[in-house]
Amino acid sequence: MKDILFKVQNICKSFGITRANHNVSMDIKSGEVHGLIGENGSGKSTLISIISGMAQKDSGDMFLKGKPYEPSSPLVALQSRIGTVVQELGLVDGLSVAANIFLGRMDQFKKFNVIDNKAMYNEVEELYKKWNLPRINPRAMVSSLTVEQKKIVELTRALSIDPDLLILDEITAALSYNTRKILFDIIDRLVKENKSILIVTHDIEELLKLSDNITILRDGEKITTKRADELTESSLKRLMVGREIEGDYYRADSEDDYSDEIVLSIRNISDDTHFKDVSFDLHKGEIVGLCGLSDAGIHEVAEAVFGVRPIVSGEIVLTKADKLINRASMAMAYGMGYVPKDRDKQALMVNDSIENNTTLSMLDEIKGPLGFVSPRKIEEVGKKVIKDYKVVAVNEKVPLASLSGGNRQKVNLGRWLLQEKDILILDSPTRGVDVGVKAYIYDIMKQLKKKGVSILLVSDELPEIIGLSDTVYVFKNSRIAKKFARSEGLTEEKIIEVML
Amino acid sequence: MKRKQNLEYILPFGFLLLLFALFSIINGKAFFRMHNVKTIIDTMIPLCIGGYGMLFVIAQGSIDMSTGSNLAFSATLGAIIAAKTGSFLLLPLCILIGAVVGLINGILVSKFKVSSIMATLAQLIILRSLVVVLSKGKVVFVSPSVLKFNRWGAKGLIFAIATVIAIYLFQYTKLGFSSRSIGENEIVCNYVGLKVNWIKVIAFVLSGAFAGLAALLTIAKIGGVDPNMGQSFELQVMLAVFVGGVPVDGGSKSSIVKIIIGALLFSILQSGLVLLNVKSETVELVQGLMLLTMVAAILKANKLSTTKTMKE
Questions:
Q1: pTM for the predicted model, two decimal places
Q2: Complex ipTM, two decimals?
Q3: Residue A37 in 3-state DSSP?
Q4: Of B181, B187, B312, the CB nearest to A360
Q5: Among partner residues A333, A371, A398, which is closest to B173 by beta-carbon distance?
């Protein structure tokens, strides 16, 4: 019997009338990986903010190694050797990587009252080495990093305190395949050192694989804690949602199936840095999946296809209009829609209303003569996106910041679907959303395919790529390494083999 | 569900009513005399017109510091050209010259990626010195027929037309919507295929054109072109815009009505204090304080209202 490292007892926390946590109790043993799962809005993130000192509990107790633990700020949590990687990015954009890692703890590098930057940079390099993390220049500004790199910086920060308890909230969704492997190695190592990990993820398969015990939350309350080997994917889903999830997650057919008509033709495009000599065709009613390691260039290809990223050679031909796409405004005008990877930075105006966000992508659709955009129409599309795509929101005027990630993603997708585009580029469409919304998005994609819409799916999640695509292009070193057609025998292993 | 009125609208408007009540009690009849009412409206009109154009720029999260110098420049150059071609051309000339200056600002900001405050600050200095060069530092006289624009009928009509155009363009067109969206998040606008650079240029052109219109009204009022005209006009316009509740970093909460309220606030405060024989330095002090209080109050109010919707 392992001893208990961290104990949570009857934690309650309310925001106004919303009970985010109600009588939640949980034990984390030394040397275990403890999974925490629940749908969007079930209170996982609230619980984690309380443990990591970012929010204060209303009532209840916490114990660290048997002693009462009351973190008044994230700094206190760090001093108690509880390191957290939060779901929302918790970094300061205008500071260097190293400054972010040691934010609030820079005194240790003081020399004659001045921060010794060099010592700090060296320390960061040491950390990379110690944990075998991919090196990110400690002098670089955080604002210049990609989402994945930022996550790595946050991870480095959490590891910099030699944590007894490492909390990972939704981190894997932002990581590519190879970085995930590094993370899993780190987890193994911590467990061997008898340290504990609390992990939150929407990826059920991964959670089952990683965890020893899993605590399930629903509507702010703890449903149960079970050993991972007593659970299966479906039993876990049932516990989370509280009912059976109907239908298949992925496509039921196991053969590729699309018309011969080419709608979009990508011919030898390069941007000289991220991708080189990429060619493929998108047919009517086809789902093309792009996958690869983090630096393989798949996300950049998606940006280039929509005309947001300039290319130096090659061409993107829209067959229907017989046009070369070189600007996003053109792609828009000829029936393409694009859901970018970073929802809150590239896709949505987070502080603006649902209706304005919806309108933004369909201005040309709803504008009248003289560029007239009627407030009535704006309201109409806002209402429609809420109704058609089951967005949970008070009304169409509320800011997106008040919605959960899954509901934001519904708005993000819905605003393109309202316009009946022929071609959709979906980059990581299910990133950070729960099973319910995930199943819903897959369902929509299957329906779109049936209607003859062509989809370019870019994703770091291989099951998603395999489960939905007709054709899969695997990228390696900025180029297409191999093409797979949908078939019964296409497995993750086959793809990974090509990727590495 | 009924739309909730935001505090950021109520605050400036409530403050306006408060000031109005305050001055009508202190100043009594003098405040309601025709002369005073006219002064108030006279101060308000150019502020509004300058603000209408600048709002497109501010909504996008940029700023146009060159408005005052642009006003003087388009007035001077316009008057010099009109003296040769005929005074009936003064109105279109002023607007055109103002717009061309705006076009240059716009290209600097969107094509050459100069930050708007830098580009227009440079323009503020450059244009002012050009004015002195062009006018040789002396007052340029215009044909007396231009004074007709200072009649209430003409002035009122110009103001009304400008207001209608501004409201239409800003509140009800793709241009206005895109401008507000750029202020919310420029990257997002790029990713949905808006021609962001182009929209930025248009905003500066409009800002310049409205400055040109304000130039004409100023010429008509003072009967000529003074090289010092429009000095710190841009600051007064900004004061009106921000006191009215337009967010400093733009976005979807920017609106034309807020400018009108802000300009009214500014001019009522000014005339009320002048009636009380308060020194002009003190008037400016009070205006500055008002700006600080209002911006802080609106920020606070916005925070309250967002946390409220979050909880809903």
A1: 0.77
A2: 0.85
A3: strand
A4: B181
A5: A371
